Amino acid sequence: MTAKSTILVIDDERAFCDVVAEILSNSGYEVKKAYDVDQALSILQNIRPDLILVDIMMPGVDGLSLTRQLRCDPCHAETPIIVASAKSTPEDYDNAIQSGANDFLLKPFSASTLRNMIDKYLTQPQPTS
Length: 129
Fold this sequence. Notes:
Layout: E1 6-10, H1 14-26, E2 30-34, H2 37-44, E3 51-55, H3 63-71, E4 81-85, H4 90-98, E5 103-106, H5 111-122
């Protein structure tokens, strides 16, 4: 049996974060939650998630600043990062990608859209027999 992929979900909207975590848990992922960047950085000292899903707009340090910071950290520089935001202009998308995000997920999104986005980065190869 292969180990579950771990996803860190970072969003200051607790209800949103909890719902996303539940969707991902039900899809077979191990999920860690952080409600702000400080909490996320604390979690990241102890784990190396397989993927990070981060909101852009948060109080204090925003998701794009965190993304830039993680891209400079050798432990997390290659970790796929998906930015989630209700901000939907082309400039918002460009800022996310320029900050080091691998992808952009526009809020609100469906459970299937979330799973498809995550699976794009965490699809496990199937064993051959």
